[in-house]
Amino acid sequence: MIVRSLDDVLGTEHEVKQDGWTSRRLLLRKHGMGFSLHDTLVHAGACLEMRYANHLEAVYCVEGRGSITHVDSGENYAIVPGTVYALDAHDRHILRAETQMRMVCVFNPPVSGAEVHDATGAYPLVNEVQG
Ligand code: 9YT
Predict the structure, then answer these.
(1) Where do the structural domains in the chain lie, given as residue ranges?
(2) Mean pLDDT for the chain?
(3) For tag attachment on the chain, is the N or C end more exposed, with fewer CB atoms within 10 Å?
(4) How many angstroms separate the CA atoms of 131 and 34, rounded?
(5) Which residues have any ligand 1 atom within 6 Å of their CB?
């Protein structure tokens, strides 16, 4: 069994900050679960265009409010506590935070820990050997 807490991550290399968000990565590839689990803050006013070409992601909002736009369809959805969205088709999306949002994010395959978005809004696929 693995037991971790946010305090284990804060101030370490697994607290990853990029423009508009801070991702606290609680479970990583090295934990062997087949997914990674992040407690992510999306900062108030952030407008993030992303497309995870190499990953599937589910995101569950527990605090704050904002919206998500599915770029190809133009569909827009409000995000409030209790909303989950799942990017099951490597969807290009734009996330907007009206207030700071706290999101629980799950990635498949798992991230290794320190990944940041590239110019396309994706994370690289880290191979099994590098893990
Ligand atoms: C909600 C979202 O996608 N934010 C960007 C950061 C990312 N999800 C992460 O690594 O936690």
Answers:
(1) 14-108
(2) 93
(3) N
(4) 12
(5) 21, 23, 38, 40, 42, 50, 59, 95, 103, 105
User: pLDDT tens, 70-106?
Assistant: 999 999 999 999 999 999 999 999 999 999 999 999 9
User: From the CA of 55, how far away is ligand 1's center (Å)?
Assistant: 12
- Ligand 1 probe mutation, 50, 117, 126, most atoms within 8 A of CB: 50
Q: Which fold has domain 14-108?
A: Jelly Rolls (2.60.120)
Q: Tell me the CA–centroid distance for residue 71 and ligand 1, in Å.
A: 17
Sheet of 66-70: strand order equals 47-50, 93-97, 66-70, 76-79
Please tell me the residue having the least CA distance from ligand 1 atom 7: 23
In angstroms, the CA 4 to CA 8 distance is 7
Q: What phi-psi label fits residue 72: left (phi over 0), alpha (psi between -120 and 50 degrees) or beta?
A: alpha
